[in-house]
Amino acid sequence: MTDLWQAPFRPFFLLAGIAAVAGALPWAFPGATDDPVGLHARAFLQVWVGFAAAGYLLTAAPHWTGRPPLCGARLPLLAFLGGAAGVAAFALPDGAARFVHLVFCAGLGLALRGPMAAGRRVIALAPWGLGALPFLLDPAGQVLVVTALIALIGGAAVPGFLFAAGGRVSRSRIWNLVPPAGILTAVALRGTALPIAAALLVTVGGVQVLRLAFWLPLQHWDRPALTMLRLGWLWHGGGLVLVGLSLVDLGLAPSVAIHALSVGGMGTMVLALAGRAAMARTPLGLRPRGMLRSAVGLICLAALLRLMAMPLAASWVWGGGWIAFLVALRPALTGAPPHPVLSARRPPHSA
Q: What does the record list as coiled-coil region(s) (predicted)?
């Protein structure tokens, strides 16, 4: 058990996997609760997103700041707060669950004071924003705001990993701010200028897909760790396009489009990044094992099933994908934590 507290990714990626499976249960067993839609939204947008954000931000923070990772009694305490937020989402009324979620996000924000001092203010403020989201926006708006955060993080991480594989350095920090700003502007305009919001989302989504063309698109397709990132980014951009199109009368249901973005864009991107902690370290870099590859395939299939308006099948496949992730993660939960966690020490030409 003590191994679990040696690195922040261990408890929080474990909790994220469990929350992802639990979040599918209201759809898989719709008769088990009086409010399957609300319970599903809380489990996904508060619990799963919170755990995934905590695991990634606390793991990346030492790289940004040069400081040691969160350890000692603070890590179990923060994980306990997260676990309490997860239980509250399923067991307490909506208002109480939101409050416990806010307390957990505040604890995460305090744990990220180092990145704040190091100048990573936007990222360090993210937990506070995640805590406030359930009080401010409807579920679709929350999905879009979380997608803006993924655009900010992934817009640096994805080209960083791809360019490192080619011996190059990503230098697109300023450009990374434009897509998130466009998404947030669209969220703000949904109530007053729907056509403009739709156009913004379609444009930002198209730009995100096009950006991939400049990130070594024809290189390293034989490296599954990088292919997973590309798939996640394609779902991210494509999902934004679909959500934008659903806001105008083109016959695409908004609920279907928002699930393509959340299941495909958010689910695959989180798996591609969190899964790096569970990959085998080889002389040629990170190599995902078969179970992790299966997890990504299942999440992509779940997104496709949701696009085909098959929510029950999608929920079962989604749950299976995250169970596969948990199986793949298990070896990474014991022993000495890898360093660095999300990449491997490698020669310049490897992934």
A: none
Residue 297 CA: distances (Å) to CA of 89, 224, 278, 293? 28, 12, 16, 6
Cα angle 23-18-332, degrees, rounded to a multiple of 5? 150
The one-letter amino acid code at 6 reads: Q
| 3-state secondary structure labels for all residues of the chain | CHHHHCCCHHHHHHHHHHHHHHHHHHHHCHHHCCCHHHHHHHHHHHHHHHHHHHHHHHHHHHHHHCCCCCCCCHHHHHHHHHHHHHHHHHHCCHHHHHHHHHHHHHHHHHHCHHHHHCCCHHHHCHHHHHHHHHHHCCHHHHHHHHHHHHHHHHHHHHHHHHHHHCCCCCCCCCHHHHHHHHHHHHHHHCCCCHHHHHHHHHHHHHHHHHHHCCCCCCCCCCCHHHHHHHHHHHHHHHHHHHHHHHCCCCCCCHHHHHHHHHHHHHHHHHHHHHHHHHCEEECCEEECCHHHHHHHHHHHHHHHHHHCCCHHHHHHHHHHHHHHHHHHHHHHHCCCCCCCCCCCCCCCCCC
pLDDT digits (tens, 9 = 90+) for 68-86: 778 778 999 999 999 999 9
Between helices 49-65 and 9-28, what is the axis angle to 10°? Answer: 160
Q: What pLDDT score was predicted for residue 71?
A: 78
Cβ-based burial of 52 (10 A; exposed 0-12, middle 13-18, buried ≥19): buried
**Is the bond preceding 340 in cis, omega lying within 30 degrees of 0?**
yes
Domain ranges of the chain: 1-136, 138-335
Q: How far apart are CA 295 and CA 325, in angstroms?
A: 6
Single-letter amino acid code for the residue at 45 = L
Mean pLDDT of the residues in the chain:
88
